């Protein structure tokens, strides 16, 4: 839907990604560079991928997105270029632009990044407000599970991991994590044919959060490492089985 101020950031990740685009002046003051509209379109589409609103293989139409987001088709085209460089969308000649369907070989690379940024952020801990955001994501997941809403449960799980990285207080890491979460949701779509997929992680999220809340940061980090190891093995098995089918 068109608006006079399109694409106001709708999440912590897109807002932080926007805040990161700046430079310091000689006097040491921060001069914030206003992101281009194309960058804001890319942020919005990245968020929609992370939230599960765009499925792998979905065709993305320039004219439709331009109308929905209140921008020009050229702006959408520029955003596609950025997302294609991140392998979140692919352009097929004479067919158009589609949401990527990531391959099994991409999984280890993504989990390597997750271990580097999530575990280090968790081991360093955060402010009471940061920890409360992690707890809020856990409770969001419990409510979604109680309601039998698997999509909402998946989104809550994304929020949990995003909140962990946000504890580091780094807009750059939040920006990286925004891309990682988008990629993860593309992987998870194939795995969630099992309706209980995300519920398997609720107990892990709770245990990690409890350790974080009690100040047992090394224990929380160790629990997360084990969690990520199991998650990678699970996804690799699902995607490997699909490739063999």
From TrEMBL:
Single GO molecular function: DNA binding
Cited PANTHER family: GNTR FAMILY REGULATORY PROTEIN, TRANSCRIPTIONAL REGULATOR, GNTR FAMILY
Any Pfam family the entry gives: GntR
UniProt keyword list: DNA-binding, Transcription, Transcription regulation
Stretches assigned to the HTH gntR-type domain: 35-102
Top-level taxonomic group: Bacteria
Name this polypeptide is given: FCD domain-containing protein
Cross-referenced SUPFAM superfamilies: GntR ligand-binding domain-like, Winged helix' DNA-binding domain
Residue span of region Disordered: 1-20
